[in-house]
Design goal:
This protein is mostly helical. Helix content is 79%, strand content 0%.
Length: 233
């Protein structure tokens, strides 16, 4: 029995160390991105768009979110795999749209989306990181389950504006589209795909929003959190 106990403890410590490092590296990355955005508007660089300044930071830390799919799929983190895949891929599609479609780099939605993402991810990863430690400061709990009231609408508005801006370029250039007739007898329209993605926001956004409202009521109203609040006060 003793050897088995040792075997069980070691993977737990390693996994916790990995998850702790992952979450707080993400906190650092998204905090740095928020700083880059702020600095861009305070001291605008010459001949550079916001995307030129932040593209590498966004690319690194957003694509690092693929590890979350791995974490859930392997059982390191308990969460819904389908929901996790949808959340990660939706962001990756936005980043790809900005990266490959020139006109989206000047979209007014870019700043809205990125700022909303930064604040949401800083609070989310902080929450997960402190949860691994075993103590979550009440301000982080409150932020995690309150900021979404503003961040969700702002983020969704920004994302939709980015998509909307991309439609003109994709429509004119027929980007990544396949038209009939051709030897494979197939057709594909990226313009149509982007439009369909935008339409999916209509049923999904209310579901996500009301789900977070329920989670807020459940979490901030629980006795455990009330005890945390008393300790902070």
């Amino acid at each position: 029995m003793a050897p088995k106990a040792k075997t069980n403890k070691k993977p737990g410590a390693v996994v916790n160390a990995y998850l702790l490092a992952y979450n707080f590296i993400q906190v650092f990355g998204w905090s740095y991105l928020l700083y880059q955005i702020f600095d861009f508007y305070v001291r605008p660089p010459k001949d550079q768009s916001l995307w030129d300044v932040v593209k590498y930071t966004v690319g690194i830390f957003q694509n690092a979110a693929f590890l979350e799919i791995f974490n859930v799929a392997t059982g390191l983190v308990k969460s819904n795999l389908t929901v996790t895949i949808q959340q990660v891929l939706s962001r990756v599609v936005i980043v790809a749209a900005i990266a490959f479609i020139p006109e989206t780099s000047d979209s007014p939605g870019l700043t809205l989306a990125l700022v909303a993402w930064c604040i949401a991810e800083i609070t989310r990863y902080s929450y997960y990181g402190f949860n691994i430690v075993g103590f979550i400061p009440y301000p982080i709990i409150w932020a995690r389950y309150t900021f979404f009231y503003v961040l969700y609408p702002v983020g969704v508005t920004g994302e939709l504006l980015v998509y909307w801006t991309s439609l003109g370029y994709v429509g004119r250039t027929k980007m990544w589209s396949i038209e009939m007739p051709n030897k494979y007898n197939i057709s594909f329209s990226l313009w149509t795909v982007i439009l369909m993605i935008m339409l999916v926001y209509i049923p999904l956004f209310p579901q996500m929003y009301f789900h977070m409202m329920q989670q807020r009521k459940k979490t901030l109203g629980s006795p455990a959190v009330k005890n945390v609040q008393k300790k902070v006060q």
